Amino acid sequence: MSTLTADTIGAFLDEQSRKSTLRFITCGSVDDGKSTLIGRLLFESKNIFDDQLSALESDSRRYGTQGGKVDLALLVDGLQAEREQGITIDVAYRFFATDKRRYIVADTPGHEQYTRNMATGASTADLAVILVDARKGVLTQTRRHSRIAAMMGIRHFVLAVNKMDLVGCDEPVFSAIVDEYKAFVATLGDIAVAAIPVSGLDGDNVLRPSERMPWYHGPTLMAHLDTVELGAPDRVSAFRMPIQYVNRPDLDFRGFSGRLAAGHVRVGDRVRVLPSGVVTSVRAVISGFDQAKEAVRGDSVTLTLAEEVDASRGDVIVAADAPPEVADQFEARLLWLNEHDLVPGRQYLLKSACKEVTATITAIKHREDVNTGAHMAAKALHLNEIAVVNLATSAPLVFEPYTRDRALGSFILVDKLTFATVGAGMIDFALRRASNIHWQSLSIGKDERAAQKHQRPRCIWFTGLSGSGKSTVADLVERALHAEGRHTYLLDGDNVRHGLNRDLGFTEADRVENIRRVAEVARLMVDAGLIVLVSFISPFRSERRAARDLFAPGEFVEVFVDTPLEECERRDVKGLYAKARKGELRNFTGVDSAYERPEAPEVHLHTLQHAPEELALQVIKSLG
């Protein structure tokens, strides 16, 4: 290699390293031309290699939608299903560069069912290019994507009114769309909007000004992207590093590895480990295998500390004199991403930075109308709905409001049974009233109360269909325990609805709350040293699991009273199945609402093979 070549390569790499990087997404409704527009950007900015162009020409003949022309959308629509259907399904990321900047663009899908993928792309973007088909104007999905982009903290929008060639490059059409969109965006807060009329297919106003639209005097799309000033993405300048891994290769080394979410850190800096609050100082900053004097935002390093501290994955090392907040109850904005509705009271896994805890949505304060932003009352959230919620976590979280720091202000919710991501949220603030409530230390505890009663407290949870015989067996079990001198109490589903839960109906949300309240009461009774028997249909596994999690190991005994639906209907002691079949009772378990059978109950009672007295004896024997 000649000196000239080495110098040229070095100069090129040095020039590239000094360029800023802009991450942006393209989004909007279906068939607005997002993939074609990105393909045009890549093609005209000469960011396509010769072999890619040859492959594109071949793919265009097989999958293209432009007749015999090159279909630029195929540069980013790489999935087989995308090419067959002519739509974007997954998020496609592409890198390209100009003389001014480097770019990472995310082409996101327009279909409503893939909104979660759009949200994924928006979560790391600095700018959103919102495409609108000039023939169709601003649609519901246009508004939804814009609202999600604003929710994710994006404050710079480009309204790209595409396919202007199909409306004769008419200025009044463009102006009407811009006026309608800007009126909508005004409801989203402080958003800067640049409106550009384009034709992604022909390249008008993409990299070169359009001769067909002489009435437009603004910048091209590429010129705007090259020059737009974004400002700092986060407002936190103090040091923040979530611990991803405790690095312990041998007995002599203990380091904490992670990526700096904000600020910088130097050897000797005073730092605080949260949530414990221990203060120490940085002994060493290790980047790769080398010692470094400092690390800055975005660097991945290992820190060693001056003192031995108890810290683990999910804890956060921060500047000692500027710590973030720690709380276990929050108000947050939530985008629901699951086909199954969110209902308050159900438990989910919450993942924020590197921390994983159990979380419960305690209240839906309101949901937002996607078109107007109006606040609407809601007991549940449906797919792709946005709401402001209160949530509680099983352990304290180190956080910043999302408007200040995306890394420590964002979270996802994961279903505990399927491990599917069901929600994406942004923390607004901690609930101060919740932080003022603490457990009161009591002199007499569960062990003392149980010892006085000479018994081991338990929660015996009977679950099964209506008419399965739960209450009958539970009553027999309590009578037998009472005869032995045990201290018991029976919580029956119908009886509780006369008082504690009289305000609840039979929707899924009300059923979840019904079980939550009863489980909390049962926990208090176990804490009092009692053997409490709970007889509820409790149709959902998630709520039964949440109830189990309230008790110590061995305290919760799940009894599945297994009676076939046909037999329950034959008995129909209360006449409820007959009413449900006539449509007089809605959300009736076994008819128009599902019952999720227990997967591993401690006791499984087959009622068709045994008399109720025999079944009760099986339960008593299981208690030991």
- Identify the CATH class of the largest domain: Alpha Beta
Q: How large a portion of the residues is in β-strands, by DSSP E?
A: 25-35%
Relative helix content? 25-40%
The global form is globular
Alpha-beta content class: alpha/beta
Briefly note the CATH topology name of the largest domain.
Answer: Rossmann fold
Measured between the Cα atoms of the first and last residue, the distance is 82 Å
Secondary structure blueprint with pairings:
Elements: H1 3-17, E1 20-28, H2 34-44, H3 50-63, H4 80-85, E2 92-97, E3 101-107, H5 115-122, E4 127-133, H6 140-151, E5 156-162, H7 171-185, E6 192-197, H8 221-227, E7 240-242, E8 245-250, E9 253-259, E10 264-266, E11 270-274, E12 278-287, E13 290-292, E14 294-296, E15 300-305, E16 316-319, E17 325-336, E18 347-352, E19 355-368, E20 375-376, E21 386-399, H9 406-409, E22 410-414, E23 421-430, H10 432-435, H11 446-453, E24 458-463, H12 470-483, E25 488-492, H13 493-496, H14 508-527, E26 531-535, H15 541-549, E27 556-562, H16 565-571, H17 576-581, E28 603-606, H18 612-622
State the gist of this model:
This protein is α/β, with parallel strands linked by helices. Strands 7, 8, 9, 11, 12, 13, 15 and 16 form an eight-stranded antiparallel beta sheet that branches. Strand 18 (347-352) and strand 19 (355-368) form a beta hairpin.
